[in-house]
Every structure is written in C-alpha cells, then in structure tokens.
Amino acid sequence: MYKVLLADDERIILEGISSMIQWKSFGASLVGAVQNGIEAYQLILRERPHIVISDIKMPGMGGLELIEKVSRDHPSIRFILLTGFGQFEYAKKAMTYGVRHYLLKPCNENHITASLESVIDELKKEESAERVKTELDLVRPHIQKHALRELIKGDKSDADAYLRFFPDGKDIRIVLFSVQGEGGGHLSTLEKLAGGILASSAIAAVLIKGVLVIAADGEEHPDRLRDKIEHIKHQAGKQLQVQLQAAVSRNGDIREAAALYDHASGGLDKQLVKPGGQTSVLINKMLDLVQKEAANPKLSLKWAARNMLYMNPDYLGKLFKQETGEKFSSYVARVRIEKAMAIMKHTGGIPIGELAEKLGFGDNPKYFSLVFKKYTGYTPSEYRKKNEKSRR
Fold it and tell me: Domain count of the chain?
C-alpha cells in the first residue's frame, strides 16, 4: 500500500479530500491529516509516507520549507502541492526540489485523482526499474565473467554485446595469478581471496588454463595495485600455503582484453619458465634467502616455507632438490661453513663459540665443530692452524 499524508491549514479542505478519495482503489492508505507544517514534518519522520499532499502556505512551517527539509533526507517522497490563486511563484521554487504536481484551490475530485494516479504510476515504474536493476546486479558478476572470457578469446562477433555489461570507455589492466606446483585446487579460493583484497578494483575474474585472470580498474594507481598484488601473494602463502606468481598488463580499453591478456601472459611466462641449466625464480629466492638468513638459528626449510616464501614445505623441498641436486638443509649447512671459513681467514683469533653463534648454530659450538669437520675434513681449530701456517 502507498502511504499518503495530507497537510493543509484549512480543515474543510482536509476533511473534503480525506472523504472524497477512494484511497484503496489506488492501492493507497491515508496515514494522517494535519493542519501545519511542523506536525506534517513530525508525521513524515514517523510514518515515512510515499506521497505528501501539502498546501504551500501553512503556519509553523510552510510547504516550501517542508519540501526542502524532507527532500534533503528523504528524496524518494513525492509531493503534490495545493496552491492558491497568485501563488505560482512559490510553485516555481518548489520545482527546484523536483515537485512536478500542482493543484489550484479549490480542487475537485477529478484533479486530485489524476495527480494521485500520475504519482503512483511514477512510483510503480521506479520500483519496477529498481527490481530489474537489483536482479541484474545479482547476475552481473556471472555475465561479466562469461563476457571477459569471450573477450579474451577474441570473439569479435559478440564483442559489442559483451561490452555493454562493463562501464563505457573503461580502461583496465589484466592481472594474472598462477599457483606454483600442484596448487590448481586452490584457484577458486584464491579468486575469493583476491577479490576481497582488490575490492572495487576488481571488475571481473575468470579462470583460464589454470590461471586466475582478473580485469582490474585501469584508473587504480600502478603502485597501489602492485601493493595489493603483493598482499594477495602474502595471504595466499599464509592461508593457502601456496606460492603465487603474478603479472600485470599495460593499461588499455576493455575492448583490447585479448591483447592485454597476451601482454600479461608474456610477463608470467618469463617468471615461470626457467632457461636451460638455470634455476627458477622461486629457487633463486631460496638461495638468496639462505645467504641473507645464514646467521638466523631458526633458518630451516619449514621456517622459510611458512614465514618467508608462504609455500608447502614438502613441495618446496622436492623442488629445491630437483633443481639444485642438493637437500635444502645440506645447502644451508654448506653456506654457513663457507661463511665461517671466510671469517676465519680474515679474523684469525675469533673464538669458536662466537663464530658458531654468528652462523646460526646458537650456543652449540660442539655441533658447529662437527658440521665444520664434515664439510672441510678439519675441526675449526685445525683449520685455523692450517691457515696460520699458510700465511707465514
């Protein structure tokens, strides 16, 4: 039911309109009839009517002031103004607040009925349009997903039909995320994770050939977009225990989606494909990490995988051995001993306990000595003496 409120300082007009109109025949109900603008405003706040039939001149608060206050906070409420002869200047001002319906006093039943029918028809059309918009908003992400896939495939025949589901003249960047190793099962979860972090920047997302493809708003500052991508990679490692590779295309119109996808794919391939005989980007990261963290007593495959590289440690260990031919723990020990040997060459008198602590063995010089001998054939003391003889 559409709720209607009457406001006029003449009781005879209030009673006349209240009784002459068959409210239910319009699908409406009269929720109040008041004689001044202040009462009308209080009743509007309480009842939230759809339509207010109001006189322009009333005590306390005139019709124009009432319209101004109500339009500011409740713009959907419609007004039908009752005007006396010579009050059309007020009506003109009311038009600036969107009022389009005026009745000249005294008004008969036909005039009021025609205005009510017109306003209610407007409300019904707006409600119908809002329902369609709501339904379209619900299905839009699914349509955009399909449209993005087809645009990337380069289907020119249907391009215009798909483009209407995206904002006109929208510039985008194509962002690709690939899961290293056997992580394809995480792509659906990754899509939700990335969508949450990119938020309104993500226009549409689709999975193509085991890669998450996102059309991101081209107006997003490149540095901010990169920060979000790094955050996604970090959270994917933390929450999903997977390592991501990402690539971003240049900026371009959404009509160029296919070319932008190819541009981003080229960047992703460079990260994922390793030249013959060389280690991949991921393993290079691990090698650099060991060099930087050699003095850290917590350094281990599990620690590196979960705290720095955000990957499954078992998969990471297999990949490291496959590419380097050496277990991660053996490589860490070798790097530490090589660093110890370099320090001893330049600082002959450093105590063994201090050296062990400097190289991640904590307060366990005995274990350090055992590892040192395993890799060099000498105890630290023997190696020091050997170096001193060679310097003489």
Answer: 3
